[in-house]
């Protein structure tokens, strides 16, 4: 009898395999780590500094340093971002705590700043490499060691978002989500297999049959611990509770149609969810109510609700069998119970009911308006409303993606036979994550796990066809030392060699080639932004805040009390973490999508003040009004400095009006002789972003450029060429500083005499810190003054 027929025999079987497979997994893990550290030269710079990748990575390093400064207390509210409101931090605490503990151990209680940066940079690579282990075991309990090893190889080499988010320097919690969610599914699967193998009944609990309960109980507790770790890495972790609950409904139905007991399923679910509830409860912020994005009562209630769901489904099943009802009534009873449960929740807590109803569209639905411009929130399969497979091919390779679909098809076909519990779980898990990447491509780093396991499952089936198990047994019987290997090669058959070649060519080689290409991608933090934020930190007034202090959040309805010296820095939300973490200044908007302003549902809404409203403002007066409206205090401006860059002014600009839901007229179609090309229009050149970046603030009364960085590759020249050709401009068609910093000033009144209605022009040559000169010009009309 093969290992997959009776896959769980003792606890040692999960933590210790035979030495060849343990060695293979260890080697695969080290290869995975090596791949993830290949871009180290772009992270650890020659001057000794560490350049983290992407904006959230920088903010995680900020929260890590605050944690170490105040250990063990963590920052949950940050007043130094989203000025003048501050932001609650929705990041889970576990990722930072793991890095902090590692830093404290390695630094003997007093880690240096460079050690902390080094730990932070390598941490995602280590967690990504560790993911090989649970993927191996899931594969093993689906199709034996061969499937497990192949799954481990595929996830070690998996390209796309799973690789990018586990590369050195990408210090974000996403890789922790992947690791802990996979560990959760592994232990949950093992608990199910063990409980079913031991024919566990609820009577065993009442009769205290510990020999039956011990192993399933231990795996269920570990599943609960790993789910809690996943949830404490990301508040949105309730997604995997939905997965196991949907799986449970199908598994109960299948067991009922086969007249089998589902007590093993109820026991596993109840214990897992109870442990999860206990571990998550201490992290709940009661003042958050029922929030999906922060640790609130929502997370406790969903864990408890899932536990109750398992208990109710088990109770229904036992009563159903006791009364010997017809099997096809069972799904209808479950449906009725679900509807009654929702009605009960709606009566008891309408806000919680609303969250439950809207959560699926939040996860699985395609975003519209401003949220659709968030890179990780856009659909994997739709780009500007057009269906495309390009992202799926990029993230998983074409063979990997279609192998996953074929694997699910085979698992679905097995439902008509007698599928193993682990096969049903994998099918439901994979289908729901596939639906999730339809809505948001951020979940692609989850689906890489499923693609690796499903592809390995296919590979395992192929090896079974060529009798790989027989070859495995012959090798075990005849190979006692490495010297025996050459003689044992005579047992290898041609079809087995051919099967291995097919797996290498179609499954392994494509992901390897794609993965190595990903390791050559340059660091995601633009150097000009580091330069600009360094200047900001050294050359602008200190806002008067204790950068590493932990501040209490204001009570509901109240504003945080900033010192009089505090001020904001206006820029697009993507760059808020750079401004705060590198520049030590307070951005008005940040990558939590706070401070953007604009509209969310309808063009008929009031256009709220924020970054989108400011940069799309059609005049300086309207832009200044936005800055004044951001801070409700009448004597304060929302921002003292404004930062614009070439990316904001060109490629990124279309995202700005998308948040206001007023997108028409910024670009127009122009026939080039062979095709239509979209070019910026008058409305674009009248926007505040264009006035600041393209025109260097020329003619503006209250915004003066105080710094520009070195040039960087961009589309700036093309935009200037359009302005000169179509609108009679005389802009110098050269690249200027990639990032430009402007200061809001009151301006000055210059008086003189001129004839009534005469155009008065004032010009001066501005010399930037980079040695570039441009002409500042302001025009006005002479007004006839009344006689005194």
From TrEMBL:
Residues 47-464 form the Oligosaccharyl transferase STT3 N-terminal domain. Its cofactor is Mn(2+); Mg(2+). One of its GO terms (cellular component) is plasma membrane. It catalyses: an archaeal dolichyl phosphooligosaccharide + [protein]-L-asparagine = an archaeal dolichyl phosphate + a glycoprotein with the oligosaccharide chain attached by N-beta-D-glycosyl linkage to a protein L-asparagine. Residues 528-648 form the AglB-like core domain. Pfam families: AglB_core-like, AglB_L1, STT3. The chain crosses the membrane at residues 18-35, 88-107, 119-137, 149-168, 174-195, 239-257, 264-284, 296-316, 328-348, 395-416, 423-439, 445-463, 497-518. Residues 747-783 form the Archaeal glycosylation protein B peripheral domain. It is found in: Cell membrane. It comes from the Archaea. Its main location: membrane. Pathway: Protein modification; protein glycosylation. Keywords: Glycosyltransferase, Magnesium, Manganese, Membrane, Metal-binding, Transferase, Transmembrane, Transmembrane helix. InterPro entries: AglB-like_core, AglB_P1, Oligo_trans_STT3, OlisacTrfase_arch, STT3_N. Its EC number is 2.4.99.21. It is a multi-pass membrane protein. GO terms for molecular function: metal ion binding; oligosaccharyl transferase activity. PANTHER family: DOLICHYL-DIPHOSPHOOLIGOSACCHARIDE--PROTEIN GLYCOSYLTRANSFERASE SUBUNIT (PTHR13872), DOLICHYL-DIPHOSPHOOLIGOSACCHARIDE--PROTEIN GLYCOSYLTRANSFERASE SUBUNIT STT3B (PTHR13872:SF1). Belongs to the STT3 family. This is dolichyl-phosphooligosaccharide-protein glycotransferase. It comes from Methanosarcina barkeri MS.
């Amino acid at each position: 009898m093969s290992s997959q027929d009776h896959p769980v025999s003792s606890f040692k079987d999960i933590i210790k395999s035979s030495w060849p497979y343990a060695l293979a997994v260890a080697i695969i893990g080290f290869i995975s780590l090596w791949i993830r550290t290949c871009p180290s030269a772009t992270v650890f710079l020659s001057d000794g500094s560490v350049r983290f990748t992407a904006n959230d990575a920088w903010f995680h390093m900020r929260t890590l340093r605050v944690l170490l400064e105040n250990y063990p207390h963590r920052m949950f509210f940050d007043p130094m971002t989203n000025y003048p409101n501050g932001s609650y931090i929705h990041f889970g605490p576990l990722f930072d705590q793991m890095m902090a503990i590692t830093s404290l151990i390695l630094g003997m209680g007093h880690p240096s700043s460079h050690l902390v940066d080094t730990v932070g940079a390598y941490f995602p690579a280590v967690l990504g490499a560790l993911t090989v282990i649970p993927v191996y075991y899931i594969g093993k309990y689906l199709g034996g060691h061969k499937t497990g090893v192949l799954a481990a190889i595929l996830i070690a080499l998996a390209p796309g978002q799973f690789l990018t988010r586990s590369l050195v320097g990408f210090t974000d919690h996403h890789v922790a989500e992947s690791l802990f969610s996979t560990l959760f599914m592994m232990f949950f699967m093992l608990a199910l297999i063990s409980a079913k193998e031991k024919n566990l009944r609820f009577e065993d609990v009442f009769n205290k049959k510990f020999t039956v309960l011990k192993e399933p109980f231990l795996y269920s507790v570990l599943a609960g611990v790993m789910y809690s770790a996943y949830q404490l890495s990301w508040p949105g972790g309730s997604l995997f509770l939905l997965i196991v609950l949907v799986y449970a409904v199908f598994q109960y139905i299948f067991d009922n149609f086969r007249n089998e007991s589902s007590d093993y399923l109820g026991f596993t679910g109840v214990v897992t969810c109870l442990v999860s509830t206990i571990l998550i409860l201490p992290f709940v912020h009661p003042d958050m109510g029922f929030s999906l994005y922060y640790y609130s009562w929502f997370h406790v209630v969903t864990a408890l609700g899932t536990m109750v769901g398992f208990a109710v489904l088990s109770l229904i099943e036992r009563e159903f069998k006791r009364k010997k009802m017809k099997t096809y009534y069972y799904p209808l009873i479950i449906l009725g119970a679900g509807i009654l449960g929702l009605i009960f929740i709606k009566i008891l807590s309408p806000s919680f009911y609303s969250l439950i109803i809207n959560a699926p569209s939040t996860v699985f639905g395609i975003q519209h308006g401003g949220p659709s411009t968030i890179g990780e929130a856009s659909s994997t399969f739709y780009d500007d409303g057009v269906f495309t497979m390009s992202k799926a091919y990029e993230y998983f390779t074409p063979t990997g993606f279609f192998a996953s679909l074929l694997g699910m098809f085979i698992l679905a076909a097995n439902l008509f036979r007698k599928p193993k519990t682990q096969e049903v779980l994998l099918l439901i898990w994979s289908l729901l994550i596939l639906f999730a990447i339809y809505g948001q491509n951020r979940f692609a780093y989850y689906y890489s796990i499923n693609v690796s396991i499903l592809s390995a499952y296919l590979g395992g089936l192929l090896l079974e066809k060529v009798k790989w198990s027989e070859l495995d047994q012959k090798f075990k019987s005849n190979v006692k030392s490495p010297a025996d290997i050459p003689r044992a090669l005579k047992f290898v058959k041609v079809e087995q060699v051919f099967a291995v070649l097919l797996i290498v060519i179609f499954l392994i080689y494509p992901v390897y080639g794609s993965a190595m290409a990903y390791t050559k991608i340059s660091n995601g933090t633009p150097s000009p932004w580091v330069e600009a934020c360094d200047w900001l930190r050294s050359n602008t007034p200190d806002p008067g805040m204790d950068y590493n202090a932990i501040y209490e959040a204001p009570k509901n309805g109240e504003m945080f009390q900033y010192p009089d010296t505090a001020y904001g820095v206006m820029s697009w939300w993507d760059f808020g973490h750079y401004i705060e973490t590198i520049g030590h200044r307070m951005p008005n908007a940040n990558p939590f999508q706070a401070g953007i302003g604009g509209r969310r549902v309808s063009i008929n809404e009031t256009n709220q003040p924020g970054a989108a409203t400011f940069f799309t403002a059609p005049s300086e007066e309207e832009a200044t009004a936005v800055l004044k409206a951001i801070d409700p205090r009448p004597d304060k401006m929302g921002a003292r400095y404004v930062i614009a860059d070439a990316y904001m002014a060109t490629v990124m600009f279309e995202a700005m009006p998308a948040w206001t839901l007023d997108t028409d007229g910024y670009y127009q179609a122009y026939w080039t002789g062979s095709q239509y090309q979209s070019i910026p229009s008058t409305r674009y050149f009248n926007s505040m972003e264009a006035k600041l970046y393209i025109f260097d603030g020329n003619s503006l009364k209250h915004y003066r450029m105080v710094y520009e960085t070195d040039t960087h590759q961009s589309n700036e020249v093309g935009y200037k060429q359009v302005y000169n050709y179509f609108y009679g401009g005389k802009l110098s068609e050269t690249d200027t500083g990639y990032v430009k910093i402007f200061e809001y000033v009151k301006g000055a009144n210059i008086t003189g005499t001129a004839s009534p209605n005469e155009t008065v022009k004032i010009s001066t040559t501005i010399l930037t810190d980079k040695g570039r000169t441009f002409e500042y010009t302001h025009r006005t009309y002479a007004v006839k003054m009344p006689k005194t």
